[in-house]
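Agenda item 2: adenosine-5'-triphosphate complex prediction
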Amino acid sequence: MTQPATTPEPVTIGIVSVSDRASSGTYQDKGLPALHDWLKRALHNPITFEPRLIPDEQERISATLVELAGMGCSLILTTGGTGPSPRDVTPEATLAVADKEMPGFGEQMRRISLHFVPTAILSRQVAVVRGSSLIINLPGQPKAIAETLEGLKDGAGEQLVPGIFAAVPYCIDLIGGPYLQTRDAVCKAFRPKSAAR
Ligand SMILES: Nc1ncnc2c1ncn2[C@@H]1O[C@H](COP(=O)(O)OP(=O)(O)OP(=O)(O)O)[C@@H](O)[C@H]1O
Ligand SMILES: Nc1nc2c(c(=O)[nH]1)N[C@H]1C(S)=C(S)[C@@H](COP(=O)(O)O)O[C@H]1N2
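Presented output:
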């Protein structure tokens, strides 16, 4: 297990599960536990989680993202509602509250996901910056959370396709958030040498 280079700073992270059926109790939500568990595994930083379980309603999703960004979440991860069906509106709700689009995250997630399912191209997931928050959409399948964040490894743990989380700590540095430190066995963060502490 890698040790953190410096004492890890605390971070507040919003986790948002967007699902009509999970939010109405038709099935048990697996999105929030999957996000929570992956982030606890990946980061040395002490995390305050702000969890939200909401239906696929555009206004509600945008309002939740605005609330979480306003209360100081450096990172907000959503899961669900990225597909083509009429109720899938998470990307629209996310773009509606964006200061800047970060298209590389969506591109890389679809690239990674194609190694797992041919329907990866059906996910319209986006990432944006709002103020000093990075907001990233993940697909709704609970297993897609680790797949996209962590990427693809071979049987020996060697990274074949980098997960998107490798770029998240430096992005958060650049927008003025805390210095995130990852556990290399889960996700090796990349920063330019000049930015590493
Ligand atoms: N929060 C969740 N908890 C558990 N399983 C989920 C969750 N979200 C999605 N899934 C699973 O992944 C599948 C695809 O997710 P998708 O977001 O397309 O759901 P959906 O068909 O739009 O329905 P809903 O919004 O009611 O979850 C679902 O059919 C379900 O099996
Ligand atoms: N890594 C990964 N990406 C994935 C999937 C998956 O199982 N794993 N499912 C795909 C499918 S079937 C769909 S329809 C889209 C959109 O899913 P969402 O509407 O649940 O967000 O994500 C795609 N991306």
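Discussion summary: The mean pLDDT is 96.
Owner for follow-up: CH.
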